[in-house]
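Dear colleagues,

As part of the handover before I leave the project, I'm documenting each prediction I ran so the next person doesn't have to rerun anything. This entry is a single chain, and its sequence is reproduced below.
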Amino acid sequence: MGLLDDLKKQADMVKSQQLSQQSLLQESVKLVEAKMNQTFLYLNDLLKQLAVLKPTNPTAYSVPGIGDFQNLEFAESFIDYRKKKIYDKDYYDYIAFFIKWASPANISIERDMPATIQKVRDVLWNYGLKFTEEEIKKRGGGFQKMKFTVPSAITCDITISADHDNARLVVKGKHFLRLGADELRIPAGDINEALLEEFAKMLIGQSTSLRKYRV
């Protein structure tokens, strides 16, 4: 066998591998697309029901050194999605939604030292919580302490991305498993009605098996 024949054989092997990889990716894209669509339809319907029922979230969101947000009720939500071109067709790129939980009560914190005042600011900023500051002065004038008022409102922000290369859905956001950021990586093949019900439990503060997908 000559050099040219050898090169042709190697080229054929490369082409065969490329076709195999492309076929696997196409199958992955189809699977992820179906599961993203199923997920969007489920969540869209779920949020509509929550808007009617306005349940109370049983989760106590604890802010270190500040206090706990408790008995928060459903306030509002929004959901949308974006698609992108793959193989000249539109496929889900991501689903984005939020749920806002709130109550009329506020948390008030008072601090009188510069270091402790800044620590409160840092914690609230770190969790993305809104707050106001009121400087309280002594009778004769001069700074006495700083009063922080934090509205009892937590917004659960989530983006579900279609990871076609790895045939999975990647869930990123904040305040859905706890106060703070989290990420879940769920194989597309695992997405079914039962898993989506676990997703719903997670969103309304009930115990869920989805923690096993946490990164």
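The beta strands are 56-57, 61-63, 67-69, 72-86, 89-111, 132-137, 143-163, 168-174, 181-187. The longest strand covers residues 89-111.

All the best with the project,
I.
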